[in-house]
């Protein structure tokens, strides 16, 4: 039985002050539910959120990590640094990182291994095709290629503990949501790939989220799809009431 998991991805939004204000309001709205919840925030807001959500079941996630422990990597953040803050999740391979910051399947794979082998931080691996690939009908092939490369050399029990987010790039921040059927179909494809690469148990356990213009108005329909276990929410996670309405889908 997979527990629904709704995570917010704040991207590069909110200062410390704004994060504190969000957390105060969100705590007053938040009631313990059967839904797992987390906010993935900019690095400088992680400790603020950990403190603000202490004593609640709201998780806190980072949006990236380096695969080395330390070194001359200007601008990067390491796993020991994240562990010290006590973060619960880490987004890996978001399409914006792949597109603007040279993230490749190879670095995604190294980062996943780092997290899974050396911490309890749960990776949220993002995969998804762009518009051109969708229009060419090659989305399944693209996503399969990403998953095979990103998970290379990672064992079944580790994969079973992860979260995979299917985020079609054409639906991110565009207001264009994949239809629940399109989203469900691709999440089913991903589950099928996991079964083929691993086994039935791993495929039954891995959490698969959909991400791309999820909002209170479409959350129920999306969450009602059999193969979708949750959502990775960008814009709508910046507003406490909207994010809460999605959690209460
Ligand atoms: O990229 C996303 C979450 O990681 C989706 O962003 P939006 O919900 O703003 O489309």
Write the layout of secondary structure elements.
Blueprint (H helix, E strand, L loop, with lengths): L4 E5 L6 H14 L6 E5 L5 H7 L5 E5 L16 H7 L3 E4 L2 H6 L4 H14 L3 E6 L3 H5 L3 H12 L5 H5 L2 E4 L13 H18 L2 H6 L1 E5 L4 H8 L6 E4 L6 H8 L2
Parallel strand pairs: 1-2, 1-8, 2-3, 3-4, 4-5, 5-6, 6-7, 7-8
Bound molecules: 1,3-dihydroxyacetonephosphate.
1,3-dihydroxyacetonephosphate binds next to strand 8.
Q: How does this model look, in words?
A:
The structure is a single chain. This protein is an alpha/beta fold and 249 residues long. The chain has a single domain (5-247), classed as TIM Barrel, CATH 3.20.20.70. 44% of the residues lie in helices and 15% in strands. An 8-stranded parallel barrel has the order 1-2-3-4-5-6-7-8, surrounded by 6 helices. Strand 2 (36-40), helix 2 (46-52) and strand 3 (58-62) form a beta-alpha-beta unit. Helix 7 (139-150) packs across helix 9. The protein is globular. 1,3-dihydroxyacetonephosphate binds next to strand 8. Pathway: Carbohydrate biosynthesis; gluconeogenesis; Carbohydrate degradation; glycolysis; D-glyceraldehyde 3-phosphate from glycerone phosphate: step 1/1.
């Amino acid at each position: 039985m997979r527990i629904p998991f709704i995570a917010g991805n704040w991207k590069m939004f909110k200062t410390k002050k704004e994060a504190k204000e969000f957390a105060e309001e969100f705590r007053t709205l938040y009631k313990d539910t059967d839904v797992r919840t987390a906010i993935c925030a900019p690095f400088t807001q992680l400790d603020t959120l950990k403190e603000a959500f202490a004593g609640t079941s709201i998780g806190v996630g980072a949006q990236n990590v380096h695969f080395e422990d330390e070194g001359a990597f200007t601008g990067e953040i390491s796993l020991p640094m994240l562990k010290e803050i006590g973060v619960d999740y880490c987004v890996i391979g978001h399409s914006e990182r792949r597109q603007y910051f040279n993230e490749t399947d190879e670095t995604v794979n190294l980062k996943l291994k780092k997290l899974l082998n050396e911490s309890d931080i749960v990776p949220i691996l993002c995969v998804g095709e762009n518009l051109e690939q969708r229009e060419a009908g090659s989305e399944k092939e693209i996503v399969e290629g990403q998953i095979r490369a990103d998970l290379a050399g990672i064992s079944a029990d580790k994969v079973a503990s992860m979260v995979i987010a299917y985020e079609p790039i054409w639906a991110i921040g565009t207001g264009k949501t994949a239809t629940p059927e399109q989203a469900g179909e691709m999440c089913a494809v991903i589950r099928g790939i996991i079964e083929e690469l691993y086994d039935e148990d791993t495929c039954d356990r891995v959490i698969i989220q959909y991400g791309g213009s999820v909002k209170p108005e479409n959350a129920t329909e999306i969450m009602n799809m059999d193969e979708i276990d949750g959502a990775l929410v960008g814009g709508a996670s910046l507003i406490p009431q909207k994010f809460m309405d999605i959690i209460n889908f």
